Amino acid sequence: MKGANTIDLTGQVGIVTGGTRGLGRQIAVALADAGARVTVCGRTEPDDLPEGVDFRAADVRDPDQAAALVDAIAAQHGRLDILVNNAGGSPQAPATASPRFFDAIVRLNLHSAMYMSQAAYAHMARAGCGSIVNIASVSGIRPSPMTAAYGAAKAGLLNLTQSLAQEWGPDGVRVNAIIVGLMQTETSEETYGDAEAQAAVGRSMPLGRMGTGQDIAGAVLWLSSSLAAWVSGARINVDGGGERPYFLDLVKGS
Length: 254
Ligand SMILES: NC(=O)c1ccc[n+]([C@@H]2O[C@H](COP(=O)([O-])OP(=O)(O)OC[C@H]3O[C@@H](n4cnc5c(N)ncnc54)[C@H](O)[C@@H]3O)[C@@H](O)[C@H]2O)c1
Prior knowledge:
- This protein is α/β, with parallel strands linked by helices.
- The protein has a single domain (13-238), classed as NAD(P)-binding Rossmann-like Domain (Rossmann fold, 3-Layer(aba) Sandwich), CATH 3.40.50.720.
- The chain has seven helices and seven strands, in the order βαββαβαβαβαααβ.
- The protein has helices at 22-33, 63-77, 99-127, 148-168, 188-192, 195-203, 213-224, and strands at residues 13-17, 37-42, 53-57, 82-85, 130-137, 173-180, 235-238.
- It has a seven-stranded parallel beta sheet, sandwiched between helices.
- Helix 1 (22-33) crosses helix 7 (213-224) and helix 3 packs parallel to helix 4.
- The chain starts with 12 loop residues before the first strand and ends in a 16-residue tail after the last strand.
- Nicotinamide-adenine-dinucleotide (NAD) binds at residues 17-18, 20-24, 41-43, 59-61, 86-89, 108, 135, 137, 180, 183, 185, 188.
C-alpha cells in the first residue's frame, strides 16, 4: 500500500481534453501511470494511443459535444474525479486578423474550458469532490505582439479558474490553473527556431532550459491528487523560473 504522501489515483476517472498529442498526451500518461482511468478527446482519433488511455471524439468548442463527452465517461465509469482542460493553442497572428479568427481562438482556449467544467461540475458536486486543472499560458499574464486573441483567452481562463474555485469550492470541487512557460514541443521550432536557437532561449531562463511535457504533467498530477486537497483557485507558474528581466543584460556583471 502506498503512503499518504504518495500520489495514487487508483480507481479515479479523468478526462484530458486534447490529450492526443503534445502536453495533453504526457499529462494523460502521467495520470494513467498513477492509476487513474483516463480518456483523452480530440476531433480525430490518433493512430497510436498510450497504454491505459482511452479516446473519444469530441470537439470541445461545442457545448453539446462537451457535455455529451463528460456524461458518457461519467456513465461508463460511474464517476468523474479529474478534468484537465488542455485543448488549446493558436498560430501567431496580428491583432488585425479577422473577427472570425478572434472568435475561433477564444472559443478553443476559453469557451471550451467553461463548457467542459460546467458538465463536469454536475458529476463532481454530486460526489462532493473533484479536481479541474486549466492549462493556461504566460501569454495570459504577459501580453506580447501577435498573440492578442490567445493572450486574451488565456487571461480569461485564469480569471475563470478563480471564479469557479470560489463558487464550487463549497461543493468540494477544486479548480486550479497552470501557467505554462516556454516549452520545447513538436511545434516549438516554428516559434523559436532550430535546436540551437531553442537552447539559447533556454539559457536565458533562470533554470537554464525550456520546459517539457513532463514538467507540466508533474504539476497536473499533484493538483489532481489529495496532496493538493487544500489548493483551489491557484495559478501555478511552471515556467523554469520565468524569463530573465531584459534590463539585466544591460547591467554589467549580472
Ligand atoms: N506548447 C507550448 O509551447 C505551450 C505553451 C504555453 C501553453 N500551452 C498550452 O498547453 C496546451 C497544450 O498545448 P500543445 O502545445 O500540447 O498543443 P498541441 O497543438 O500539440 O495539441 C493540442 C491538442 O488539442 C486538441 N484539439 C485541438 N482543437 C480541439 C478541439 N476543438 N476539440 C478537442 N480537441 C482539440 C488536438 O487534437 C491536440 O490533441 C494548450 O492549451 C496550449 O495553449 C502550450
